[in-house]
Amino acid sequence: MLAGEEDAFETFGERYFTAVYRFAFARLDGDRDLTREIVQTAMTKALSRLDTYRGDAALLTWLCACCRNEILMHFRRRRTAPADIELVEEPASGFDPEDQLLEQEKAHRVHMALDVLPANYSQALQWKYLDRLSVNEIAWRLGMGPKAAESLLTRARQAFRNLYESLHGRTGSDD
Amino acid sequence: MDERDQTTDGALPPDDEEIVRGLLTMAGPRPPIPQEDLDAISGAARSAWRTQVRRRAPAHRAVWMSLAAALAVALGIAWWWTSREARVPVPVARVEAVVGPVRLENSRWIAKGDAIPLGTTLHSSTGRAALRLAGGATVRLDVQSQLSFVSTSALDLERGALYVDTGSGRPSIEVRTPLGTARDIGTQFAIRLEGSTALRVRVREGSVLTQQHGRTYLTPAGQELLLRHDGTSERRNVAAHGPEWEWVLEASPGFDIEGRSLQEFLDWVSRETGWQIRYADNGLVESAAKIVLHGSIGKLRADRAPFAVLPGAGLDGRLEDGTLVIRRRH
């Protein structure tokens, strides 16, 4: 990408901007305008010093760290912290706010990992585990044989797992 | 950390099939991200990236630009020489963009920059193409279409759909189909054959005269005319923007913003999308003519590009019922 190849930038954008947006959106109480502003600034700064990225952390982790810094700076400038969560309804029996936050954090990490995976991997995983399609149906949709689809699903699971684990404890531990 | 902790915290044990299933089911479908936000982020990031690339390797760039210029001159001379030797007919159109496979005659796929000789036919299957005719008008060919170039001002549409933009002050274009002939009066319009049963003429700007079985129908901007093979017809109102024009955007050749004014860029957006452009205050009208843009919008479509470009100029754009309202950022 540092060579100035337009296609490389397009691929970078498609893979990472959505995931970083999701990362910020979850930490800014769903404030869309603020999320857009902060991610814009963070990505601008990150790309201005892309040549300092040494590859010792996953690129997504590095980008999320840039974004997290920008969020912290924003709140420092405003000298405020994000609003406390206010419970407006009587919680159901067995409701545990901490568990719910953990679940939400896990869900964000799952979504971010799917954002960053190659499109055919994330699509195949969603077809298999969310839409509950058979391998034959997935194979037909991908224009390949069932064995090739099974193999693709195995690689997709592995890639998803690696990404999910790389996000675990790095992007989430600061919250 | 024991296995229980690993699963509750999110780290994965070795056997992953059930865990991946569990995680995806728990998380559910991904909530969509607003495309205009992603476009704005992409626009700002692209600008920073280009600055970084320029700063990093100015010498390399100069060398490559010189080589590219030399190559372009050499290719130009070679093209001119071979064209002259082979006595290729004067091109009637030139390809400005191709998305997917489009064939010239039954022989080869066309590419951006190709010349289309008089009397030849284009066939699109799953592809689309944008072409500029020798007279200056532009046309776009939809998927599953067949178009023959009869002259610089007459085209035969055998099947599928064609979009025509003659702009102002250019000769009108005649589109002949098995179900009737349409001729524009300074306009943007789309013409679509519905198999062998009907012809649909949809007008975005100006007006179109359509002839069938000796009768002439005038269709003004904002209307669609449906002409059936049995001579019956129907009319309805259509917006200048929206899903019916979606395929036209897909085939757009794009816009090079480098060194162009914001006003020129917005004119292009308006022409491509059918949106009206409105400035929140009068001072902005003057500013738009003076602001010079740099960089590139890459492959961004005209309905997304403003949300990437405007923030870089300190402006915001919001779409309100087919009107793009431009405001200063606070």
Structure description:
Chain A is mainly α and 175 residues long. Chain A has helices spanning 6-27, 32-48, 59-78, 97-116, 119-129, 135-142, 146-167. Chain A has two domains: 1-83, Orthogonal Bundle (Rna Polymerase Sigma Factor, Chain: A), CATH 1.10.1740; 102-175, Winged helix-like DNA-binding domain superfamily/Winged helix DNA-binding domain (Arc Repressor Mutant, subunit A, Orthogonal Bundle), CATH 1.10.10.10. Chain A is built from seven helices and no strands. The longest helix of chain A is centred in the N-terminal third of the chain and has 22 residues, at 6-27. The radius of gyration of chain A is 19 Å and the shape is globular. The model of chain A is unreliable at 83-91 and 171-175 (pLDDT under 50). Chain B is an alpha+beta fold. Chain B folds into two domains: 36-88 and 254-330, Phage tail protein beta-alpha-beta fold (3-Layer(bab) Sandwich), CATH 3.55.50.30; 91-246, Jelly Rolls, CATH 2.60.120.1440. Chain B is globular. Classes of the chains: A mainly alpha (175), B alpha+beta (330). At the A-B interface, helix 1, helix 2, helix 4, helix 5 and helix 7 of A face helix 2 and helix 3 of B.
Helix/strand layout:
The complex is a heterodimer of chains A (175) and B (330).
Chain A: H1 6-27, H2 32-48, H3 59-78, H4 97-116, H5 119-129, H6 135-142, H7 146-167
Helix pairs in contact in A: 1-2, 1-3, 1-4, 2-3, 4-7, 5-7, 6-7
Chain B: H1 3-9, H2 17-27, H3 35-56, H4 58-86, E1 91-99, E2 102-104, E3 108-109, E4 115-117, E5 121-124, E6 128-133, E7 138-141, E8 145-149, E9 154-159, E10 161-165, E11 174-177, E12 180-194, E13 198-212, E14 215-220, E15 223-228, E16 233-237, H5 246-250, H6 262-273, E17 276-279, H7 282-290, H8 305-309, E18 315-320, E19 323-328
Parallel strand pairs in B: 9-11, 17-19
Antiparallel strand pairs in B: 1-4, 1-6, 2-3, 2-5, 5-8, 6-7, 7-10, 8-9, 10-12, 11-12, 12-13, 13-14, 13-15, 15-16, 18-19
